Structure formats: C-alpha cells, structure tokens
C-alpha cells in the first residue's frame, strides 16, 4: 500500500519527515527508514548548540555525523535543526556578558562551522528557532538582548554564506492559531527580506492538541490553518509543518484516537490546500519515545504509532488528508 511520502510526492510536494533519534530500537528505525512513508528527517537533538559546540569553539560533531551518514545510507533529506535558539544552548553562551560584536562573531563561527560542515546534506535549515513570545513580541534571549532584532537577519546571512544550497527557515510553535504570534513571524520574514537577505520558508512546529488539554488546543479548523499558511506564502516563502504531534489527555480512548485521526487529516489537508506547503514532518515515530509526556505531564499519545509501535488511526487519518 501507498505510504505517506509516496502520497505526498504524488501530490507534487517534496517530503514527509520524522524527528529522528538513533537509540538502537530496530523497529522504530525500520519505520523511519521505510521510503514509502519518509523521505526526510530532522535530527531531534544532535545538531543543537549544546550538542555540537558545548564549549567555545569546541565542536563535537561525532553524533551529528552519525545522522548525516544515516541520511546518505538511507537516501533521506535532512531538515537540519537548529542554528540559533535560546534553548538547549550551553551556559557559556546563554549566560551572556558579551558585547554586540563578540556575540555576532560567536554566532558567525557557530553557523560557519556547523552549516558549513553539513552544507551538502542539509536540504533545509531551521536557522532561527522560537524567537517570539506568544503576543508576537521578541522573546528575551541572549541573542535578542545583546544584538537586538538584527540577530535574525544576521544569522540568515551567515547561514546563506555557509550553506548556499540549503533552504533557510524561521521556525516556531503556536503559529497555527492566526494570532499575534502568527503576525510576529510574518514580521520576521519581512525583516530579513528588508536586509536584502534570503529567507526561504517558515516552519510551523504544529505541536497541537485535538481536544482541549491543560497546555494546548483545541485544534484550529482547516480554514484557519490555510489562512495562516497563506499569510506566509504571500510573502514569497515556502511553508512546512516541521514538528507535528497532536497530543491528548492520556490515557487514550478509541474516541480520542478517532478524533486525533481527524485532526491529523485536517492538518494534512490544510498543507495540501496551499501550493507552497512543500512538506510535513512528524515529531517522532512512536508514542513510547515522544517528548510530550516528559514536558506536559498527563498528556501524550501524540504520534502516528503507539507505544508498541503499532500504527494508530492517526496514521490513516494523516494519509487520507494527503
Ligand atoms: C525537543 C526534543 O524532542 C527532546 O528530545 C528534547 O529533550 C527537547 O527538545 N521545539 C523544538 C524541538 O524546536 O527542538 C524540541 O525538541 C521540541 C520543541
């Protein structure tokens, strides 16, 4: 039977991906490897600043290299993640105390070394991740507090120089509700463009919930999702759902799993309704390993395969939407 990536390519789009952690689970890895379902992945943690430059100019590429090798061996695109982010940032950076010029040179070295090393394998890069508060203003971070909003176009300029063939994305969560944060990311696209710097896409993480949970939901309707996507494509950039998971209050019940399948279908349909929605990535394979229960206690069951690595109704819903 036809898989997710097969269906997506049939519809003239580029990719379906998953977040990937190589943890030695053969069943999970075989699902991620299956080219019918996935032709792309995002390294879940291995390219983050704390993993790859834990000390100043001390680069530890071994782990990220494993993902590059896995991609080559299994013929996958890599959605590389992420160059400039306030989180999973080593203390030597986050504690600050740098002047403007010094922090820019630190960013430059990081981006040139990391994006430069993987320039032939990163189809896309999340250059800047999560720079916005919920109200659309800039989040307080060492980058914003030291450099100001210019840290964003500066990061994109370095990334383009270091890896000219990669598509460069601004990536954030809660952009799906057509609120102030949605507008904030439009402002960021225009800001980068106003510097004469290339930005190729907006990544909507899509950490969503079907029902209302203590931390999210309910799901935006299809029309809202399409409006949000078009708000970005009108600025001449592509859009991608970069980290889809649709959580629920656990335990799962058959009804909730059916509603979740509908929710996955809605998200997929919204992408397919917008020509420049080039792909979608789900944030992992199995509920057994998802980040959700660890961060949102009492919530979970957010992915397409259950804790026993069996396909859920959500898989069929997602496929139906493509
Ligand atoms: C999460 C990973 O899934 C976890 O393994 C890690 O402990 C924390 O980060 N937004 C992002 C992702 O951009 O990098 C985050 O991934 C989830 C939220």
UniProtKB/TrEMBL annotation:
SMART domains: Glyco_10. The keyword Hydrolase applies. Its main location: secreted. It is found in: Secreted. GO terms for cellular component: extracellular region. It is an enzyme of class 3 (hydrolase). GO terms for biological process: xylan catabolic process. It catalyses: Endohydrolysis of (1->4)-beta-D-xylosidic linkages in xylans. InterPro entries: GH, GH10, GH10_dom. Residues 16-321 form the GH10 domain. One of its GO terms (molecular function) is endo-1,4-beta-xylanase activity. Gene3D superfamilies: Glycosidases (3.20.20.80). Keywords: Carbohydrate metabolism, Glycosidase, Hydrolase, Polysaccharide degradation, Secreted, Signal, Xylan degradation. Its EC number is 3.2.1.8. Pathway: Glycan degradation; xylan degradation. It holds the Pfam family Glyco_hydro_10. It comes from the Eukaryota. Belongs to the glycosyl hydrolase 10 (cellulase F) family. This is Beta-xylanase.
